[in-house]
Amino acid sequence: MKAITVRPNSIGAEVRDVVVKETLGRGQALIRTVMTGICGTDRGIVSGKISFAYPPEGYSFLILGHEGLGRVEEIGDGVATLKKGDYVVPVVRRGCGQCLNCKIGRQDFCETGKFVEAGIRGKHGFMREFFVDDEKYLVKVPEEVKDVAVLTEPLSNVVKATEELLFVQRRMIWNCEDSTFECRNAFIVGTGPIGTFFAMTLRTLGFQVYLLNKREPSETERYISEKIGAEFYDTKLGIDKLPDADLIVDTSGVPEAFLPLMKKMRHNSALILFGTMEGEKAEIMSDLVTEIVEKNILIIGSVNASKKDFQGALNYLSIWRYRYGDVLNRMITSKVEVEEAPEVLSKKIKGEIKTVIKWS
């Protein structure tokens, strides 16, 4: 079987034939991979900068890829919700089997830290021709979005983080006088797929959204921001012209990108930290800590998603397919062949929002 493999903590990826010990069992399905997405985590592993990646027990290599889309080739006994030909998206994280959250399908809140994640730590990923998976970890894709369903995994993380935000902000009355969120301003730091999905999700909920980057938008970014009703803002122009913020979402992982914006935060506002990057540094003054305290500012760190968040992501994709037309297709800025993958895994393609690998 052809797969894209890495040796964690070493630089580089390669396409090669591998043998993986998987057999179709009860409650499982054999999946033919259709597409896999490339994200910053994949590139962090390939560059050797992500230290927590490791292969499954008994293997010296790790098959990369956690953003998958596949088609059911065969089902085992006991499979109730899937049939041959169905398109599915696999859930990434698998629980420890010990803590209560993992036992009830909320492994995204694992308490022991002993979970595994496909293509990242302890479990082979989906950058391969076939894989076998449990039905409970497979999410059926609606027909109308199968061409963009490879975007489900990154969007699922946004769905979860947004749900966390709205749940915790029930600490007070946060909606506007007309019961909507149309009076609330949200800054999204970073304009990759996660930033774009946060913008689309928050616009769907009614927020006024500002997509922030330290450059002018690309043609595609300009089109998407205008189509969804968000404003793209070049932070090199300074931040004084921006309004006050009720929400900041950082998808960059770079402290110096979002810390200066915090002086624009209103009372009872919130900061979502989603981006991750190792080695970046910024100084935090005690004045900022005082402001966080005195303004009741909420800080949320969020990662990963549960199966219900994947289902929620597919619901959003279905809504946006009709509301925003070709925006979702435009987010997939490049489709590459498997043999090209090692090169694009080592560096971003110019103008990239989302690059995907075609398998079948």
TrEMBL record:
GO terms for molecular function: D-glucose binding; glucose 1-dehydrogenase [NAD(P)+] activity; NAD+ binding; NADP+ binding; zinc ion binding. CDD domains: glucose_DH (cd08230). Its EC number is 1.1.1.47. SUPFAM superfamilies: GroES-like (SSF50129), NAD(P)-binding Rossmann-fold domains (SSF51735). InterPro entries: ADH-like_N, Glc_1-DH_arc, Glu_dehyd_C, GroES-like_sf, NAD(P)-bd_dom_sf, Zn_alcohol_dh. The keyword Metal-binding applies. Catalyzes the NAD(P)(+)-dependent oxidation of D-glucose to D-gluconate via gluconolactone. Can utilize both NAD(+) and NADP(+) as electron acceptor. Is involved in the degradation of glucose through a non-phosphorylative variant of the Entner-Doudoroff pathway. Belongs to the zinc-containing alcohol dehydrogenase family. Glucose 1-dehydrogenase subfamily. This is Glucose 1-dehydrogenase. It comes from Stygiolobus azoricus. The gene is gdh.
